[in-house]
Amino acid sequence: MRILVFYGKSIKDETYEITKQFLTKFDRASVKEYFLPDDMSKPCLGCGNCYLNSEKNCYAFRQINKIYENMTDADLIVFATPTYVDNIPGHLKSFFDHFGFLWMLRRPNGIMFKKRAVIIATTDKLSFKNTIKEIKKNLNWWGISNIYSCGININNKLNVDNSLEKIYIKVINSKIKIKYITKKRFIYSLRQIKKHPENEYDYNYWMDNGWLNRKRPWKF
Questions:
Q1: What is the pTM of this model?
Q2: What range defines the domain where residue 33 resides?
């Protein structure tokens, strides 16, 4: 199994240790790790080039393209992050902004519909619910249906291994299933693309993939 891990913090603290504990459960897995913001030092500028033209026009394309290649190759994508101000860290938000072109409303990659993802969110005081919700929202709009999440209070580590074991069992035993809400998002996006053909780059992308007709990205 090829596992790709994104840490929402470059410092190797409790979140890192907990994630490592989770990864050791996978025998013979190939693991690639990115530490944010160190491994994505160029933040999203909100210029809109990736939306209106192509992600290749992003000033950080060389950086994000390598990450993108690793995402498409991975069997499992893991996001492990602490909770900052009741949500994800700013550099993780910038990461998702860089990949906004992957949203179904733009130019989704059919490969992402058959990916599995795990979210490990840690906190010491505030709830981790918004952190998980924000990451899950982005992954859902990328087309990933099979997402397993785990929230951990670092001040109460008694049940950490049990929580990680439950997620591990779900990952290895579950079959890829495209949820109804994912299909619903796709159909909504399809209607928006047809409604706004003036965005030629997105429209042509959907046309080239056959999605404007009856072909669907999860059927390949």
A1: 0.95
A2: 2-178
